[in-house]
Amino acid sequence: MLAGAKARGCRQFTRLEMLVLAAIAYQQPVTRAELSRLAGQRTTLDILNPQQKLLNARIGLIIAQRERVVLSYAVVAAI
């Protein structure tokens, strides 16, 4: 059966991919956190989500700083 899959050009699964498939098969439903715990590795989303939150916080800080400067000029202009 595996020889037939190789002959058809099907790719081999990595050990991590096989672990994920086995976890899904035996542990329905399975969460991303459980898969990360089983694999001992963080998923891409586990890394990117906190980075996105940090980036959003930095953008919010810059916008707030800009607003403070703009409003301070508005106060000075009103005097």
Write the layout of secondary structure elements.
Blueprint: H1 2-7, H2 15-26, H3 32-39, H4 44-78
The total number of structural domains is 2
Which band does the percent of strand residues land in? Answer: under 5%
Helix-strand category = mainly alpha
Question: How confident overall, as mean pLDDT?
Answer: 77
**Principal-axes shape call:** rod-shaped
Number of strands: 0
In sequence order, what are the helices and strands, one letter per element? HHHH
Enumerate how many helices there are, as a single number: 4
Please compute the radius of gyration using only Cα atoms.
Answer: 25 Å
Report the helical percentage. Answer: over 70%
Main β-sheet, in a few words?
A: none
Q: How far apart, in Å, are the first and last alpha carbons?
A: 84 Å
Contiguous low-pLDDT stretches (5 residues minimum) are: none
Q: How would you describe this structure to a colleague?
A:
This protein is mainly alpha-helical and 79 residues long. The chain has 2 domains: 1-41, no CATH class; 44-79. It is 77% helix and 0% strand. It is rod-shaped and about 75 Å long.
